Amino acid sequence: MTAQQTQLDLGIDVDLVGRAIQPSEPDPEIEGITAVGEPKGIVYTKEWVVDLILDLVGYVPENDLAVRHAVEPSAGEGAFLLPMIRRLLDSLERHDRSLSEARHALRAYELNERSARMVIDLAVQELRHRGIDARTARSIAQGWVAVGDYLLLSRKDHRADFVIGNPPYIRYDDLPEGSFAAYRRLFPTMVGRCDIYVGFIEAGLRQLAEGGALAFICADRWMRSAYGAELRRLVAQLFSMDVVIEMHDAPAFENEVSAYPAVIVIRRAQQDNVVVAHAGADSGVTPAGSTIAKSLVDLADGRDVMLQGFTATRAPHWFSGHTPWPSVGPDQLAVLQRLEDELHPLEDERTGTKVGIGVATGNDSVYITTDSTVVEPDRLLPLAMAADTRTGQLRWSGHYLVDPWQNGKGLVDLDSHPLLRRYLDDHREELTRRNIAKRNARGWYRTIDRVNHGLTGKPKLYFPDMKLMSNPTLDRGETYPHHNLYYLTSDRWDLEVLGGLLLSRVAQLFIEAYCVKMRGGTLRFQAQYLRRIRVPEPDSIASNIQARLRNAFRDRNVPEATEAALAAYGIEDARRAFEC
After folding, report:
1. What phi, psi does 60 have (nearest 5°)?
2. How far is CA 221 from CA 226, 371, 520, in A?
3. Which of 22, 104, 211, 314 has a CA that sits 20 to 30 A from residue 521's CA?
4. CATH number, residue 291
């Protein structure tokens, strides 16, 4: 795809050699779709990344590529297609095959006709350099490049042994009107506020033959975001994740982008072990006498190789289901899988440990006050705010929640609380505009969340929603949490010991792995991510280690908390993963 948007004539089919054929009946599944150009989506991949991907997926001259079907879904200016042509021609020589035997070995899609002509010309040049006459070269190249939208035409193509490329980066709200809903009918993993590359991944996976592999470089947000849930489910159910290389810092593209890219290789096969790697800012240098791909695999297998800019490991398995997949370095991933395989989650009925979120009011300017005289004293709850936990010691700022709830009995009777009635009546107009009030006219003065009065007097750990580092803060049973605080209570844990564990880099690893990071590296300590943390049994931690964790929590000493946590978890051999 290229920058110019075009209208696809849905009354014309395109055959497998890219020529217009006789008009057919419109396809009801794709009728009404406006094909997408990519004014914001075109990103060109550097040559070393292309070679890495082709090597990893096995598109190499040593294999008999003439009898395989390879697809490039978004040809652009040929960053992938031209190296694929070179490798295909080398394979023909190695396996003593004629060019005519490779007429159907390649299929590249390009939406824009002008760009398709350009990439055809480049393909012709490659063939001419190998001594192919001009007429044959033109015929072969035109057969390899099809003008059209891969998302619409892939299901009419042959089963593929390889689907390789860099799909376009276009958010759903940048698509022509109606296109997202129409694509969604074809590709049900395109849910929420997804990028169009989600559809390209699903289309490529569905086209794969048994044993075939998809190899893309694309944004990795689908591995953790809500909009990637159905794609993760599809991969986990029917495919094998073979390679994941996080390339956020790598010089992967010709222009600087903020797409958080990763190289992925996914195969239509039973899940096996996985090469997991990180490419740093100094990656891209080909080692002497080898390739980046071979050295990367050797590195993942623990062999002593020199590969600039990469770290790698081979994980024994991948992750199942639709829940977010982790995003951490190879060393950390090995520890993460080990702990997830062996330990119970933080939220656990056996220890009576629960994770929750504070009260959402629907109008903080009304329900939160620092004036203790505005309503009756029994209608005020001391409210902990995120700023109160900044130092790691709870410093209550004097905020109160104006509480309209009886203890376990629904909303209070305003007639019995004249100050509360007058206060709420003064704000009635703005409170009744809230959706929660429109849905319940009689309860117009309710907060969005009910108040759990028993929580106030219960010791708990607070976690502010957004923080660069884990910052569990102990409340000894004095306040109620606001909505931007998550809390943890437990029947069996000494909360200071647990706080030491949760202060450590070991516990923070789980948050780093699963949360979608904000700009600047800010982490989200939300309930869904806190519940991913694994912890040892409270009684399994030696008393001296408990004391170290308790003291580290009180002193806010993250290095000491991490050292003690390594002992509590029994993973002292993994110290390197936490840079202690």
Report:
1. -130, 150
2. 9, 44, 16
3. 314
4. 3.40.50.150
Q: How confident is the model at residue 5 (pLDDT cuts 50, 70, 90)?
A: very low
Q: Is the pLDDT of residue 163 over 90?
A: yes
pLDDT at 577: 83
- Shortest CA distance to 40 belongs to which of 173, 151, 198? 173
Instruction: Answer yes or no: do 317 and 391 share one domain.
Output: no
Residue 529's domain spans which residues?
354-404+450-578
> What is the average per-residue pLDDT within 257-283?
91
Place of tokens 């090469």: 275
Name the residue among 88, 78, 76, 87 with its Cα closest to residue 123: 78
Is the model more confident about 118 or about 26? 118
Confidence of residue 42 (pLDDT cuts 50, 70, 90): low
- The whole-number pLDDT of residue 328 equals 81
Report how far Cα 423 is from the mean position of its chain's Cα atoms: 45
Residue with the bigger pLDDT between 6 and 494: it is 494
State the residue for tokens 């060393």. 331
- Same structural domain for residues 292 and 366? no
| Digit-coded pLDDT (tens) for 421-457 | 999 999 999 999 999 999 989 999 999 999 999 999 9
DSSP code of residue 237: H
Read off the tokens for 55.
């090597």
- Please give the sequence-ordered ranges of beta strands (E in DSSP) within 297-365, or none if there are none: 310-315, 344-345, 354-357
CA distance 342 to 207: 37
Same domain, 281 and 375: no
Rounded Cα distance between 280 and 247, Å, is: 7
Is 580 within 8 Å of 567 (Cβ atoms)?
A: no
- Joined together, the tokens standing for residue 167 give 């799909």
CB neighbours of 225 closer than 8 A, spacing ≥ 6? 192, 324, 516
The total number of structural domains that make up the chain? 2
φ, ψ of residue 423 to 5 degrees: the values are -65, -45
What pLDDT score does 260 carry?
Answer: 83
460-463, Cβ contacts within 8 angstroms, sequence gap of 24 or more: 460/487, 460/488, 460/489, 460/495, 461/487, 461/488, 461/495, 461/498, 461/499, 461/502, 462/384, 462/389, 462/394, 462/486, 462/487, 463/487, 463/488, 463/525, 463/530
Q: Collect all residues with Cβ–Cβ distance below 8 Å to 492 and sequence separation of at least 6.
A: 351, 352, 353, 538
Q: 373 and 233 in one domain?
A: no
Its sign, for the CA torsion 395, 397, 398, 400, is: negative
For the CA atoms of 345, 349, 352, 353, the dihedral, rounded to the nearest 10 degrees, stands at 30
Read off the tokens for 11. 């009354």
Query: Residue 580: beta bridge partners?
Result: none
Query: Using CA atoms, how far apart are residues 79 and 144, in angstroms rounded to an integer?
Result: 15
Q: Which of 140-149, 250-259, 264-273 has the lowest mean pLDDT?
A: 250-259
| Model pLDDT for residues 452-508, shown as the tens digit of each residue | 999 999 999 999 988 889 999 999 999 999 999 999 999 999 999 999 999 999 999
CATH number at residue 378: 3.90.220.10
